[in-house]
Amino acid sequence: MFEILQFEFMQNAFIAALLVSIATSIIGTLVVVNRMVFVAGGIAHGSYSGLGAAVFLGFAPMLGALVSAVLFAVLIGLLSYRSKERIDTLIGAMWAFGMAFGIILLDLTPGYNVELMSYLFGSILTIGNFDIWVMAGLDLLIVAAALLFYKEFLAVSFDSEFASLQGVNAKLFYVVMIILIALGVIISIQAVGLILIISLLTIPPFMAERYANSLASMMGLSFLLSLIFMYSGLYAAYSFDISSGAAVIAVASVSFFLFLIYERVRGSKNEG
């Protein structure tokens, strides 16, 4: 496996995989614990409007995706805090609008670059040095926020009303949490794409939750699983000349189903 690291693009891919694993382990844990899978999906697909706008206006696509993802996150956070039971309709509309608006702007852009389709399905093998620095910067923000506000996120995740009674600004940290999800989405876009990103955000934390005894340990186990999936998928993509994003998610999905089978068999034995 180590011979593939002689190529610079593979070195960048492995560094990017590490950065993605750090982000998705933290963000994915918050997504799973707070049951925000649909929220993460809405932000991911809504960010495509920013990609289209950036290309149309001549800016860096990742910058446009970042701005739109954060705007969608703030909007979803403010609107969903008190009425979570009806937010699915709003997110569905924003999801569709983001994709449609982004595609229209791309269609209107002279000399449209088809490589932007990689944002839909991921292309970690094309990540350059600039992208790595951007991902590293966003990773630092996510890690710093998780360390500084760990207790607040823990309180809001498990009992927001009790957290408010204890003096925690639950609404503020709920919105901050969703903004962090947006940053995690942007970090992961080039690795696995908008279409497949939900799997990477949910599968490792779901598996980790079964063996974790705290939010922090769940993040740690999720990081290890995500890194294994990313590196295994990269090696498979290189070896069989297949799409890197699809390979990563395929590895994660197969592992997930095997995990479910193992859990079912173990549960049956315990009952017997």
Supply the key terms.
272 residues; ABC transporter involved in vitamin B12 uptake, BtuC; globular
Question: Can you describe what's shown?
Answer:
- The radius of gyration is 19 Å and the shape is globular.
- Helix 11 (215-240) packs across helix 12.
- The chain has helices at residues 8-33, 37-46, 48-57, 61-80, 87-108, 118-121, 129-148, 150-158, 160-165, 170-209, 215-240, 244-271.
- The mean pLDDT is 87.
- 46% of the residues are buried.
- The protein is mainly alpha-helical and 272 residues long.
- Helix content is 81%, strand content 0%.
- The protein contains twelve helices and no strands.
- It has one domain: ABC transporter involved in vitamin B12 uptake, BtuC, CATH 1.10.3470.10.
Topology of this structure?
Blueprint: H1 8-33, H2 37-46, H3 48-57, H4 61-80, H5 87-108, H6 118-121, H7 129-148, H8 150-158, H9 160-165, H10 170-209, H11 215-240, H12 244-271
